[in-house]
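A quick word before the example. In earlier lectures we treated sequence and structure as two separate objects. From today on, think of them as two lines of the same record. Here is Protein HTATIP2 written that way.
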Amino acid sequence: QVVLDFERLGEHAAAFQGHDVGFCCLGTTRAKAGADGFVRVDRDYVAQAAELARAGGCKHFVLQSSRGANAQSRFLYLRVKGEVENLVQAVGFDHCTILRPAVLLCKRQESRPMEWVAQQFLGAMSWLFPTAYSVPVETVARAMVACVLQPGQGKLTVLENRAIHELGKA
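And the structure line, produced from the sequence above:
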């Protein structure tokens, strides 16, 4: 494990050398980082890491994005996710996989009361609609690994929530 200063990511280019595959799940919240900090982490850091990975020899980049990502969205979160998807694709990897999960079901160390309520509700809804509104983080992680072991055809693969569920359980 290498600890990097993302404010000076370019100084850590050696950490990105010699890897065939890159996985990126980097993100924060607007509540934690403010609007500018959110954009810096979720778009700028991710795009710069992708560029360093490609320069270091990475051939397949796997990006966790979000359901509804759209560079034209009026909503900051969805717009930034769409912008970073476009930036990562433009880097020129041999293959790029983008996962767009719905609400992530996980246990957090920090307190997020509204997220907890949403997770309880969506966790219950998953009994009726298992792939519609949420996905456990473990399923996303398994899908990320599986997409590298069974890469799709062409330069780009985009996996929506249902496909993440299917691949993550295979």
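Notice the following. DSSP finds five helices and six strands in the chain. We will return to this example when we discuss secondary structure assignment.
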